Amino acid sequence: MNIPRPIPGATVLAKGRFVSLMRTPSGWEYLERAHSPLAAVIIAVTPEGKLLLVEQTRPPIGARCIELPAGLVGDLEDAREESVLDAARRELLEETGYDAARMEIVAHGPPSPGLSSEYVVLVLARELTRSGPGGGVDGEDIVLHEIHLPDVPGWLAQKQTDGAMVDPKIFGGLWFAERAVGCP
Length: 184
What we know:
- The protein is α+β, with helices and mostly antiparallel strands.
- The chain has helices spanning 84-96, 152-161, 169-181; strands at residues 11-15, 19-23, 29-33, 38-44, 50-58, 63-67, 70-72, 98-109, 119-130, 143-148, 165-166.
- The protein has a single domain (36-181), classed as Alpha-Beta Complex (Nucleoside Triphosphate Pyrophosphohydrolase).
- The chain has three helices and eleven strands; from the N terminus they run βββββββαβββαβα.
- The chain has a four-stranded mixed β-sheet, with helices on both faces. Strands 10-5-6-11 form a four-stranded mixed β-sheet. Strands 1-2-3 form a three-stranded antiparallel β-sheet, with no helix packed on it.
- The radius of gyration is 17 Å and the shape is globular.
- The model has no long low-confidence stretch (mean pLDDT 91).
């Protein structure tokens, strides 16, 4: 993986708790995460063929958002050096209550390269078992949705009609999920 590295000569314009606004020597402004540019995005399908999706309020867009379970790699003080797969396993359990016996990286790249140095790693989680409550940590209000793979597009369209936003990474995840379980 070609993980983004700090840009030589970039300056900090503003620094918050989680992100910094940066400027390259050529004048391009972008966001940089405080502890790690890596995010693990988990494509998890239950043995019954249901895709795990999460819903939570996202303050930057002022709305509820439907997403694949995800989280930052190395964002915890005591786990700065964790691997992508360890972070994916932790986030899957925290957000959904599911654990996976097998996980593999299926794709990676920058989701918004004109705005951010963030780098996303898509992880396919297999052989899931429910082992916790899910719902997130530290006051997160995460709602788990378990949707049969063939029903996902229609379900997402209805959620959008109802006012929720949908993260388009779900559609890439759906492609990998369908191939993993043998759907056309």
